[in-house]
Prior knowledge:
By secondary structure, this protein is α+β, with helices and mostly antiparallel strands. Helices cover 24% and strands 26% of the residues. It has nine helices and 16 strands. It has helices at residues 25-37, 69-88, 141-149, 156-159, 191-198, 226-230, 252-256, 318-334, 353-364; strands spanning 4-12, 44-52, 55-62, 113-120, 125-133, 167-173, 182-186, 204-211, 217-221, 240-245, 264-267, 273-276, 278-279, 294-303, 306-307, 311-312. The strands form three sheets. Strands 5, 6, 7, 8, 9, 10, 13, 14, 15 and 16 form a ten-stranded mixed β-sheet that branches. A four-stranded antiparallel β-sheet has the order 2-3-1-4, covered by helices on one side. It has a two-stranded antiparallel sheet with strand order 11-12. A hairpin with an 8-residue loop joins strand 6 and strand 7. It starts with a strand and ends in a 16-residue tail after the last helix. The model has no long low-confidence stretch (mean pLDDT 93). One magnesium ion (MG) binds next to loops.
Amino acid sequence: MINKITITAIKADVGSIGGHIKPDEDMKQSILTFLRESEEGKLLIDFRVQSVGDDIAIIMTHREGENSSDIHGLAWKAFLIATDVAKAKGLYGAGQDLLKDSFSGNLKGMGPAVAEMEIEERIGETIVCFQADKTEPGAYNLPTYLAFADPMHNTGLMLSPKMKDGFTFEIIDVENTKEDEVIRLNTPEDIYDIVTLLRNNHRYIVEKVYSRTTGEVAAATCTTRLSLIAGKYVGKDDPIMMVRAQGAFPATGEILSPYTIAHYVAGFMRGSHIGPLTPVSVNTGVSFFDGPPIVSAVAFNIKDGKFTSFMDCFANQFWAGVREKAYKKAIAIREQGWSGPAMLEDSELEYGGITERLGRLKAKFYIREVSKTKVQGETK
Ligand code: F6R
Ligand code: MG
Ligand code: MG
């Protein structure tokens, strides 16, 4: 029997304590209670609620397929309930990511980040779910590429016949906010084309990865860039991603390996800086300069849609050393404040302040008269 299950992970910032630091435990509890006790909650086979930075993530399994308005609507309601808790407690930014007044069938463009994939559940179905805060969806470009295409991190590409045919990358151009403009490229033959796109984390994002051996979906990332849709500052998109592991897919350790780099990504304070993507335990808040950008990862198995317990991948002592490196990288780039690559290019800056200033200053620029240079020997 084909056992089709959809895993949907939805993440939103609906309020936090002490600035954009961390949500309140009661907010998470209110979501759990709602999902457990409501009639709509019965659509779910299983669910978990976690946080990273100031965002709450709901990870769900069900049989409604991708883009189900019932499932998206359920998450929307759950976040409204958590917003009420945040408001009642006077927390900061209550309801921040719920950009629209009412739910209209699909969460795309409404604020919350959504990553989902419908899968035929394998025996021992293994999933890694990444949740990041204070950064953008393109932050996953490099680690996803390295995990699926580079034997420096995934030696299984050489060792395992199940991965020998490589993977198909589906990459979306998020600058087209009207339609889904995507390209499909294959590893290993298209890797130079793939990295030519993926170096631009703001525009081209790996949305899905497929196994070329089995045709199965291997990874799904949320790709919404809300600022492009809204045309104004709405915060960075604080992305979520799911990756299937083991067998025809990279091993969990190969998927985690690129996170040792703590590569520089966009985000950090006011979504306008560069900082190292720092691997942290689940439910970790941010601190230094509203950051640094952080990512947590949980690994788990699914049986008939039911979750096992979740393993907190970056809680292992090994990652303490990576965090030290990331903290040093964070301080190193912050030492140059606003100068050069420490901040994002003009078009990526949030809040509008710099754009406004530049506009005012542009009006004050003037063309200087070129003083005539004297030609030698010239007399008046
Ligand atoms: C970045 C972020 C924070 C805020 C900053 C100012 O994604 O959430 O760095 O941008 O704390 O917040 P507001 O504008 O709410 O005062
Ligand atoms: Mg916030
Ligand atoms: Mg956030």
